[in-house]
């Protein structure tokens, strides 16, 4: 029956052909899930994305119809929800009906709605097995837990197929046990809760997985505990974290969970990022880390990206990692936030690069021209990266592209005293 729908609706058929030609991923999804064809029969729904509260409400309504003990159907519903909205946002970007920033908003809100429900499912499962953990003051954690987003999801800059950089934090009493029939200590409870969340997000079902998850930005990285107490997280950031970890914290924000724990996280973040710093040392550490990344991840022949042939068309340009690209802009923003947020705390209000650049301009720390150049270059690079992702290609373009943007980014990089 679904095979005749496009024939009966020429507009839907035209959209189908345009979108499949622009994105092999969409074509593959249509082959695997032909029920998605009905998305093209409602142009208003396809090209009018919902706002964050509407997305969250829609997903809640879908899940509330499924029995709480039917995990398989809950996982499928989550995946169908993501597939449907991923299709809509891809279609909106391909046709130009949504600009880059709105596309990333949509993809980020979609992830937040899913994470809210995944946490709720994992919490109900964990409490049913072991009871509820308590805080040091004896009150019950409900949930006393937050999912913190770093990287693209933290910076409200998700792209098509982006993974999620996450950190889990709780405020449970590590000396206490849960209050259920099979009690376990709080640390064990929250570790299992975190494991359950990752399982729900990453398990491959007939409809695929929700997201790949990267937990390496947690305290002590891959060797650290999966879930940190709020106190342990604060101590680590204060005493042990490297400068690059503070750079990452610039883009960190609470995605879902306890409002109280979220508020305490924001206080820790502001205190850590707003501390007084030796600017010469900071510039050296940021520059050293960036050089290592270029050496290991970029395509240029030299770490600085200033080889004589760096701008030849035969040399490919890695939009993210090469000199003058996305990461250079991100590192400048992070350096500026660490260097100047003590005097200008407003720089920490937002976690996305565009609004931090606007804050630097408003504070007079970047000229209007340079701030505008960086914003426009950043958006141009990300738009190109989105196009590559829709084609299921790496974020590398031919070397004859973005010469002026790259040179300007490199000029401002040097102007900031970075090397």
UniProtKB/TrEMBL annotation:
<dbReference type="GO" id="GO:0005524">
    <property type="term" value="F:ATP binding"/>
</dbReference>
<keyword id="KW-0808">Transferase</keyword>
<keyword id="KW-0548">Nucleotidyltransferase</keyword>
<dbReference type="GO" id="GO:0008882">
    <property type="term" value="F:[glutamate-ammonia-ligase] adenylyltransferase activity"/>
</dbReference>
<dbReference type="GO" id="GO:0005829">
    <property type="term" value="C:cytosol"/>
</dbReference>
<dbReference type="InterPro" id="IPR043519">
    <property type="entry name" value="NT_sf"/>
</dbReference>
<keyword id="KW-0547">Nucleotide-binding</keyword>
<dbReference type="GO" id="GO:0000820">
    <property type="term" value="P:regulation of glutamine family amino acid metabolic process"/>
</dbReference>
<keyword id="KW-0067">ATP-binding</keyword>
<dbReference type="InterPro" id="IPR023057">
    <property type="entry name" value="GlnE"/>
</dbReference>
<feature type="domain" description="Glutamate-ammonia ligase adenylyltransferase repeated">
    <location>
        <begin position="14"/>
        <end position="267"/>
    </location>
</feature>
<dbReference type="InterPro" id="IPR005190">
    <property type="entry name" value="GlnE_rpt_dom"/>
</dbReference>
<dbReference type="InterPro" id="IPR013546">
    <property type="entry name" value="PII_UdlTrfase/GS_AdlTrfase"/>
</dbReference>
<keyword id="KW-0511">Multifunctional enzyme</keyword>
<dbReference type="Pfam" id="PF08335">
    <property type="entry name" value="GlnD_UR_UTase"/>
</dbReference>
<dbReference type="Pfam" id="PF03710">
    <property type="entry name" value="GlnE"/>
</dbReference>
<feature type="domain" description="PII-uridylyltransferase/Glutamine-synthetase adenylyltransferase">
    <location>
        <begin position="309"/>
        <end position="387"/>
    </location>
</feature>
<keyword id="KW-0460">Magnesium</keyword>
<protein>
    <submittedName>
        <fullName>Bifunctional glutamine synthetase adenylyltransferase/deadenyltransferase</fullName>
    </submittedName>
</protein>
């Amino acid at each position: 029956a679904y095979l005749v729908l496009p024939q009966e609706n020429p507009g839907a058929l035209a959209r189908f052909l345009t979108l499949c030609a622009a994105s092999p991923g969409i074509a593959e999804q249509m082959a695997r899930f032909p029920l998605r064809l009905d998305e093209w029969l409602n142009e208003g729904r396809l090209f009018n994305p919902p706002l964050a509260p509407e997305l969250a409400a829609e997903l809640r309504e879908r899940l509330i119809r499924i029995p709480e003990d039917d995990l398989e159907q809950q996982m499928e519903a989550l995946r169908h929800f993501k597939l449907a909205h991923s299709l809509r946002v891809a279609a909106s970007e391909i046709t130009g009906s949504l600009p880059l920033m709105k596309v990333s908003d949509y993809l980020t809100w979609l992830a937040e709605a899913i994470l809210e429900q995944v946490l709720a499912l994992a919490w109900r499962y964990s409490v049913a097995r072991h009871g509820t953990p308590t805080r040091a003051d004896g009150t019950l954690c409900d949930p006393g837990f937050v999912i913190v987003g770093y990287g693209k999801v933290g910076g409200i800059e998700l792209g098509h197929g982006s993974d999620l950089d996450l950190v889990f934090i709780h405020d449970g009493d590590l000396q206490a046990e849960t209050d259920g029939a099979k009690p376990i200590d709080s640390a064990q409870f929250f570790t299992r809760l975190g494991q359950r969340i990752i399982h729900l997000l990453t398990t491959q079902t007939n409809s695929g997985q929700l997201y790949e998850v990267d937990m390496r930005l947690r305290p002590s990285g891959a060797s650290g505990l999966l879930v940190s107490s709020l106190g342990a997280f604060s101590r680590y950031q204060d005493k042990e974290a490297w400068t690059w970890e503070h750079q990452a914290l610039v883009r960190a924000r609470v995605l879902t969970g306890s409002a109280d724990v979220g508020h305490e996280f924001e206080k820790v973040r502001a205190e850590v990022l707003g501390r007084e710093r030796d600017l010469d040392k900071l510039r050296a550490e940021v520059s050293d880390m960036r050089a290592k990344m270029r050496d290991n991840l970029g395509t240029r022949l030299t770490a600085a990206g200033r080889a004589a042939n760096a701008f030849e068309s035969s040399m490919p340009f890695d939009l993210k990692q090469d000199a003058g690209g996305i990461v250079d802009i991100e590192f400048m923003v992070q350096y500026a936030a660490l260097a100047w947020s003590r005097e200008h705390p407003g720089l920490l209000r937002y976690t996305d690069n565009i609004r931090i650049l606007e804050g630097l301009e408003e504070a007079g720390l970047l000229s209007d021209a340079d701030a505008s150049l960086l914003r426009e270059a950043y958006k141009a690079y990300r738009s190109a990266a989105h196009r590559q992702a829709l084609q299921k290609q790496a974020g590398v373009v031919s070397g004859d592209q973005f010469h002026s943007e790259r040179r300007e980014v490199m000029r401002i990089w040097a102007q900031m005293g970075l090397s």
